[in-house]
Amino acid sequence: MSALYELPVFGLALTLGVYLASHGMYHRLGRPGLLSPVLVCVVVIASVLQLTGMPYSLYLEQVALLTLLLGPATVALALPLLRHGKALLSSAPAVIAALVAGGVVSIGATVGAMVAFGADDALLRAALPRSVTSPVGLTIAEILQASVPMAVVLTLISGVLGAVVGPALLSLVRVRDERARGFAIGLTSHGIGTSRVLGESAVSGGWSSAAMVLNALAMTVTLPVVAHLVTG
Amino acid sequence: MGGDPEMGLLPVLAGGTMEPMSRAALLPPVLLGLVILLLAQMAGLAVSALLGLPIPGVVLGLLLIVLLGVLRPTRAVVRAAEPAATPLLQHLQLLFVPPGVGILLELRTLAENALPLALAVGGSFVLALLISGLLLQTLLRRQDRRRGGADDQERATA
């Protein structure tokens, strides 16, 4: 078995292959949040590593190409903001109020739950960037010296939650405005949620992706200060 | 793909009307876009390191592209970045598979703290979603009412 996974191309071939398969399945089944390709990929590939005994460090080495692309992908987030920012700019005061309120509540609830249960500081720091789109969240986790995989997985769970129950929850409290629906989903469940609301309406999708980038920018500035205050 | 790439592109140039962009148009669009994104990232990283800013370099790179896109003379640069940016964003999730798989090493931490983590993630998600959604809807409705009908049309086309 080790002869197979020691091939330098094994990790990349496995990752891309599983991604293509899960991507195809996701679209064929009508985009169910629980079958979000990234979730399926993480579960399948982690199982393959467990079964074959391939060390994670070796896998990471083989997929260095993907890690390298994270940087330009993060920079590319400027484009959705440019494309949809104009609509948000015309409602700047309302948008800023919602951004701040959402951010404060999100950080407050995270810190509250973690402190109430006496979870350790390292875990609290990993939970803080959970609402931030992964490329930026990952950088924030590094700055906070938190576990990057933990932060990524918690972010992923947030995204899936948003895609699965977000729209229904908003309908329940009668948030019907397309703009507000998109914004709330983008703010709390970033790219995975955005992909879901894009199916609802283009306006929602635009507001969602702009909210996702705005939230990432706001959290980049805020979270290190919060982490410092809470964990010292 | 095959043969001399310049030969294939020459007819385009000869009959083309692209004056200032003609040289950039000769470059492979995806690679050109990727280089623009990488240069913005490098500039961000350099500024962040040189000035000792607490903001990560990639985020500065993102802001740099936003700035280039807002200013009229540099808007073409952002448009040229699009062929690389679009597929990168479309398959952004793929890039988180490797760090996500790393959770294997922390399954115990995850299991031992399942309850506080579930409450922190679930609670902050639900509260932030509902509060930001309700607040924004209220404020937008009030704003729409104040601005009246003319603005509605503008919004419909936006």
TrEMBL record, chain A:
Membrane spanning stretches: 6-22, 34-51, 63-82, 94-119, 151-173
Bilayer topology annotation? Multi-pass membrane protein
Would you tell me the Gene Ontology cellular component terms?
membrane
The record ties this protein, via InterPro entries, to: CidB/LrgB (IPR007300)
Keywords (A to Z) from UniProt: Membrane, Transmembrane, Transmembrane helix
Indicate where this protein resides in the cell. Answer: Membrane
Where is this protein chiefly located? membrane
Q: Which domain of life is it from?
A: Bacteria
Q: Which Pfam families match?
A: LrgB
Q: Which PANTHER family match?
A: PLASTIDAL GLYCOLATE_GLYCERATE TRANSLOCATOR 1, CHLOROPLASTIC (PTHR30249:SF0), PUTATIVE SEROTONIN TRANSPORTER (PTHR30249)
**Name of the featured protein:** LrgB family protein
Question: What taxonomic lineage is listed for the species of origin?
Answer: Bacteria, Bacillati, Actinomycetota, Actinomycetes, Micrococcales
